[in-house]
Design brief:
There is one protein chain. The chain is α+β, with helices and mostly antiparallel strands and about 90 residues long. It has 3 helices and 4 strands, in the order ααββββα.
């Protein structure tokens, strides 16, 4: 399971990066699925970030990471988070 432990470090870093954004930035950046690669210690990881929900009060974002190797990459590590909108935004 060492591979999944490596994925977890990448997932934690990517979740931290995306969760620092405001809900407005998330909604603008995630109009479509964002898929990209990151390289850490000469290893490549695939990252996919997706806006799951954009309600009147929050946005719900999913971040997934794998290394492209089969069969493990069929089930990537995934984490989701919710970013609350301000009261002013929710009432508009």
């Amino acid at each position: 399971m060492r591979r999944r432990e490596e994925w977890q470090k990448v997932l934690d870093a990517e979740v931290a990066r995306w969760s620092r954004m405001s809900w407005e930035e998330l909604a603008a950046e995630l109009r479509g699925v964002q898929a990209y690669q990151v390289e850490i210690e000469s290893k490549h990881y695939q990252v996919e970030v997706q806006l799951l929900e954009n309600t009147g009060t929050y946005v719900h974002v999913s971040v997934s990471v794998d290394d492209g190797s089969l069969p493990l990459s069929v089930v990537p590590l995934t984490h989701s988070f919710i970013k609350q909108k301000s009261a002013a935004a929710a009432s508009s």
